[in-house]
Amino acid sequence: MNSVSSHRSAALRLNLIKIYISSFFRYFILFLPIIVPYFTSLGLTHQQVMTLQSVNAATFFLTEVPTGYFSDRFKRKWAMVCAALIRILSVLSLIRAENFRDLVIFEILFALSLCFDSGTDTAILYDTSEELKQVSGDAEVGSNGLLSNRMFYLQIGEAVSAVFGGILASYSLRYTVYGSLGVALVQLVIALSVIEPARVKKESAKSAPVASGVLGALSCFKNNALMSCGILLIFINLLTFIGTWTYQMNWAHSGVDLKYFGYLWAGYNVAIAFAARLAPRLEAFMGSKWLIVLTGSLPALGFLGMCYSSAILAVASGFALQFCRGFQGVTIHRIFNDQLPSGIRATANSMVSLAIRGFFAAIAPFVGYLVDQRGIKFSYFCLGVSSLVAFGLIFYFVLNRRLFDKHGQLALG
Predict the structure, then answer these.
(1) Which one of 138, 159, 229, 249 has the fewest CB atoms closer than 10 angstroms to its CB?
(2) What pTM value is reported for the model?
(3) What percentage of the chain's residues is helix, strand, coil (to nearest 5)?
């Protein structure tokens, strides 16, 4: 390997580290573990809190694909830079927020910053790894390992953030917002230092050329396995999103002191990180089919468990949804991304995220209304029963017919 290739190889390996560091800080959001109490301290009802998340999701719905296409069409590095700059603006808007209308502006800006990040870091990881294979002659890490590492650092970052956020919140809720501004500046510095990896052209399984952009991404969903993974990703992420935005309501209802919210949020995110690390080994041990069955069943187990009035049981049951997030973020996401051509990978991931946010935008206000009218425990019971029935239907009518063959093996292509 000549000196130019050696230098490029070293730069690409450093690029992987930078993306992992960026993942660590992506959800290093100090106010996140106490965001519901923060909103309610400004006079908002639970329905208004969930409506704000609906606004956030609707912003994703409108901008997810355009930002993903921007990332595929132009430099992905600049998509990361845009994400960091808009995140800074969003935190500044939260500092000034005093009412529901001000918080709507914050949610729009915050969602837009996450949209520019969505799918971009995954695409850079894949492209960096694929260029490393060509430059150095060997693979730095397989796709399963890439996503496992990314998920691990992302969740550990959120866990560490939760501990610090909880400590700051014990003094003042607003301190968590001020601290998040400094973190956003760190994200900007990291984004500016990332190098753009070369785009590696990848043919489909049938060696047919794939059109670029949204039409190319749509054409990929004709693949049975891709379509099945897309449906499953939408279903599972919708349930875990609802869980994420109702945990704090449940803790408050169960009598958990606010000073412990940060530690609970940290523990929940460590569980996701642990599950992400465990997923490749579990998949090798029990096979993709049974790991997906376990993953799809965990939300129902979590929601039904959180119906208990006991604070300990209610909190412990929430870990089921966190393990679900860790498993699906590696296994199902890996099966999905392994079949996508590099040129439309960010766009295709953004389209799945768009569908998740669209469904969440429609459902979130209703969940908030149900919590206000009937209470969090009754809401969890409804979610648990409906998620169990829905996964049974998806598994029987979609997964068994599209993703797996009669022997339970992945039927890709």
Answers:
(1) 138
(2) 0.75
(3) 80, 0, 15
